Amino acid sequence: MIQVYPASSRFEYDKGWLKGGHSFSFAEYYDPENVKFGPMRVCNDDVIAPGKGFGAHPHSDMEIVSIILSGRLRHEDSLGNVAVTGFGGVQRMSAGTGVIHTEHNPSEHEDVHILQLWFEPAERGKAPSYTTGEFDTAALDGALVAIASGQGLEGVTDMGQDMTIYLSRMEEGQKIGFKQAAGRRVFLFVIEGELNVSGAGDTVSLGRRDTARITEAPELSLIGNSPVFYMLVDLP
């Protein structure tokens, strides 16, 4: 089954320094029917103004992944980690028993645009950790590129959950197939462009900022309806 959530269904926010949308219940937005999808708990599409950001705040027992789409994001935490990451980079924090961190835009002139994803961990109460990773942005063209995974993929940023986050870009008419084990889930997020998705007898079209939550469809066909940039998350 492919369930489409159009961009218009997101909870949109504009705080001046922070703009974007929540795909799941988060902060002041709560919908008991939209709390999570498998272990996926948060998909926030954030644009942070120059010199602004989130002050020190705690997390525990959550896998938090920040994908930088443009600009640069600075992270600092109570474990002593400091990192500044741009497009082609990913930040992963396993909050475990507890960590305090800050995130902000270090630029004086340029917005930073990020996707921030939260996932429940496979095991609670572990020691917190933080890492950054890089991926080849040119390799995104015509392929699904794993950028973070808990499935032991070599050279890919590790996570504490049995899942993989992919990014891809396709030209109009280009096609990619995706297969996973039966009983797993797929979350799709269209960053830019239009995407046609087919699986288990369903076919849907997704536009910019639309998402889809897919179950019982272990084989998918993904076709660009226009030049398209999108994220696919393989979930238990």
UniProtKB/TrEMBL annotation:
Coiled coil: none annotated. SUPFAM superfamilies: RmlC-like cupins (SSF51182). Residues 15-118 form the Pirin N-terminal domain. Residues 147-235 form the Quercetin 2,3-dioxygenase C-terminal cupin domain. InterPro entries: Pirin, Pirin_N_dom, Quercetinase_C, RmlC-like_jellyroll, RmlC_Cupin_sf. It comes from the Bacteria. Belongs to the pirin family. PANTHER family: QUERCETIN 2,3-DIOXYGENASE. This is Pirin family protein.
